[in-house]
Design brief:
heterodimer, A: about 425 residues, alpha+beta, six-stranded mixed barrel, two-stranded antiparallel sheet, 14 strands, B: about 250 residues, alpha/beta, seven-stranded mixed beta sheet, four-stranded antiparallel beta sheet, 11 strands
């Protein structure tokens, strides 16, 4: 037999599917509404989550060592005062020659013992440029007493209110800064408290001492460093565009990395923060999955009801000569159209919710009991929703896949209808 | 009533449909129900034949088997030179699409399509071009007297109008054989008569073969051949001349 096959043009398929989904207008609208609300909730939750995490990351980067850090190899595994970059001048020239779109901050980090007549505490001395350094810029507004240190201040230090309490130090108090040397000896410098800050992060307020880089560098000189070469512990790089991190990291690695020098990004510098965010994300993904299950059952209910109600009609179509394959596509196309509508309406609702919270934010301070400190950094008390293009794509794909996936079973069920049995119903 | 013996009738015409030794057995647990038994039947091109018999006699089962909607337990069926009992399911589906037309007792139309679109639907599946199917659909809807309501959906049509759309759909697709299962069962007398008149007229004008099941005496009166079934067997097969119709009338 010279066999001829059945055809179902795309236009007819879409037209039939479109009309079919509106047979029960109210049911379809309820389904679409529930998906849109579920989707808006998911977007709000993910947006708030990303907003909170990004706030933490941004603050951690500013308080910490930037998006990228160039430092002695092995320092992160076992920090020690004798691990430093001996030739800061040459290294800075190399980094500068890359024309990195951002700021490069030389820093010296030391573990010291801070003592006053009243008490002694372990501390981290951070030598930086008092004007223009990101960390200095972030902490300057948090100054609760005294004044900010001036560039070139040979004695001035800034301490947190936690440390001030432990040392019983006030503005003008002398603090002896003592550091161990590689050979076992120790060295000391005298510092004078110029200001006291409250960073909102107890870990910093209890531990951090800020000084001009020249004061900290004297400890490196004590380790035998040549001051003419401007030795430092690290360069912290703050990128104008955080998304360009992978490219700059690769360029920096190629330019400066060797067996003495390593380039690390903020994720490598703060693995605990990364882990915390991952765990927090996992919890949110569970919530997202619950919403998706709700969406899947919403669509499944609508399409399956519609298929079961139309068994006789499918029998008629099969009797007239429509193939199983075309019947499967017909029902699947109904799910596809529902999915597209659901995603479209979902994004309109979710987009509006996101835009409102992205501009107005949610004040979380009351919920967090006044403290927004977390994992050595802090979250801004007002959280604004943030959605990256990647997130938009992920959420769209997820909701689309969930809605489409829920149409598979009804489509298969419809295609399995046998005309003679269906026509008897 | 003048009748013509089946054996001597239409020998010069070409056989469109031949059933030989067709049985249909349903199993319900341990119980075997023989819905059709040893059916031998030949239908020539252009015949307008009625399958009659009481409920449960096997009329619908026979139509389903001829239409490839159900498979016989035994026997062979040749339709337009094709042994349909050897066709696979997908082949049967295509065979129905291009060779057969169906009119069912009820729920004949797709509710979301207009009368015109319902008639076009089978031609769409056949792959006919837009212009041809539109012209044919309009033509056949005019032939069944529905030119003024062709844009209406089934819900806005009466039962009689819906059945006429189904007849238009069956014929517009150009089938060799139209199978109608109790097409007038849900219609009042006036609509039933009108539908039968249309089917009869188009059968002659279009030279299309019709086999329809019925237990409606008014329908039988218009049949040119009456095949009587009882307990799954053909107990009578009569060709009726024009004069006998006039006598019956």
């Amino acid at each position: 037999m010279n066999r001829r096959h059945s055809h179902l043009p795309l236009g007819m398929l879409v037209m039939l599917s479109w009309r079919n989904i509106w047979r029960h207008r109210r049911r379809t609208l309820i389904t679409l509404s529930s998906i849109a609300i579920g989707f808006a909730l998911a977007v709000l939750m993910i947006g708030l989550n990303d907003g909170a995490h990004n706030s933490m990351i941004r603050n951690a980067i500013k308080l910490g060592e930037g998006h990228l850090t160039v430092q002695p190899r092995g320092y992160i595994e076992a920090p020690a005062n004798h691990k430093y970059l001996t030739d800061g001048t040459t290294l800075q020239e190399k980094i500068g020659s890359l024309d990195v779109a951002g700021r490069i901050e030389p820093r010296i980090s030391l573990q010291i013992l801070a003592s006053t007549a009243s008490n002694s505490v372990g501390a981290g001395l951070e030598g930086l440029s008092p004007q223009g350094d990101q960390r200095a810029d972030l902490l300057r507004p948090q100054l609760v007493d005294g004044t900010w240190i001036e560039p070139g201040d040979q004695r001035g230090i800034l301490i947190g209110d936690g440390m001030a309490g432990k040392l019983k130090a006030k503005i003008g108090s002398k603090v002896v800064l003592m550091a161990g040397k590689q050979g076992g000896d120790s060295q000391a410098q005298l510092g004078r408290v110029r200001g006291i800050f409250d960073s909102r992060v107890d870990e910093l307020d209890d531990y951090l001492i800020l000084s001009d880089i020249q004061l900290a560098r004297r400890f490196l000189e004590g380790e035998g460093a040549d001051p003419a070469l401007q030795p430092i512990t690290r360069f912290a790089l703050f990128l104008d565009d955080p998304d360009s991190l992978p490219e700059w990291k690769a360029e920096l690695k190629a330019a400066v990395e060797n067996d003495q020098v390593v380039v690390l990004d903020w994720r490598e510098m703060m693995p605990q923060l990364v882990q915390f965010i991952m765990v927090d994300d996992a919890g949110n993904y569970i919530f997202l999955v619950l919403i998706l299950i709700m969406v899947v059952f919403g669509i499944l209910n609508t399409v399956l009801m519609s298929v079961l109600e139309r068994t006789r009609e499918f029998g008629l179509l099969r009797a007239l000569g429509i193939s199983r394959y075309h019947l499967l596509w017909l029902v699947f196309c109904e799910s596809l159209l529902l999915s597209l509508l659901a995603v479209g309406i979902g994004w309109i609702v979710a987009g509006a919710v996101h835009l409102w919270f992205a501009s107005h934010g949610i004040d979380m301070a009351a919920l967090m009991g006044g403290s927004t400190e977390m994992m050595g950094t802090f979250m801004d008390p007002v959280i604004y929703t943030e959605l990256s293009g990647e997130r938009v794509f992920q959420l769209t794909l997820l909701i689309f896949a969930a809605t489409l996936g829920s149409g598979i079973y009804p489509a298969i069920k419809a295609s399995r209808v046998t005309p003679v049995e269906a026509l008897r119903t | 009533m003048t009748t013509i013996d089946n054996d001597s009738a239409g020998k010069t015409a070409m056989a469109l449909l031949t059933l030989q030794g067709v049985d249909k057995i349903y199993r319900q647990g341990e119980l075997e129900v023989r819905a059709l038994q040893e059916i031998d039947l030949t239908v020539q091109e252009g015949e307008f034949a009625a399958l009659v018999g009481p409920s449960g006699s096997g009329k619908t089962t026979l139509l389903n088997i001829i239409g490839g909607l159900d498979a016989p337990s035994h026997g062979s069926i040749q339709l337009n030179g094709t042994s349909i009992t050897t066709l696979k399911e997908a082949e049967l589906s295509d065979f129905r699409l291009f060779q057969l037309g169906f009119v069912f007792q009820a729920y004949n139309l797709v509710p979301v399509l207009s009368a015109l679109e319902n008639v076009e639907l089978v031609m769409v599946l056949q792959g006919r071009d837009v212009r041809e199917r539109r012209e044919r659909a309009e033509h056949y809807l005019e032939l069944v007297g529905l030119e003024k309501v062709m844009q209406r959906r089934p819900a806005a049509l009466s039962g009689g109008q819906q059945q006429r759309v189904a007849v238009a759909r069956a014929l517009a697709a150009g089938p060799r054989l139209v199978l109608a299962d109790e097409p007038t069962a849900n219609l009042d007398s006036e609509n039933a008569t009108a539908l039968l008149d249309i089917m009869h007229r188009l059968s002659h004008e279009e030279k299309t073969t019709f086999i329809f099941s019925t237990h409606d005496r008014r329908v039988m009166e218009r049949a040119e051949r009456i095949i009587t079934l009882r307990d799954g067997k053909i107990v009578s097969d009569k060709h009726i001349g024009q004069e006998s119709h006039e006598q019956m009338a």
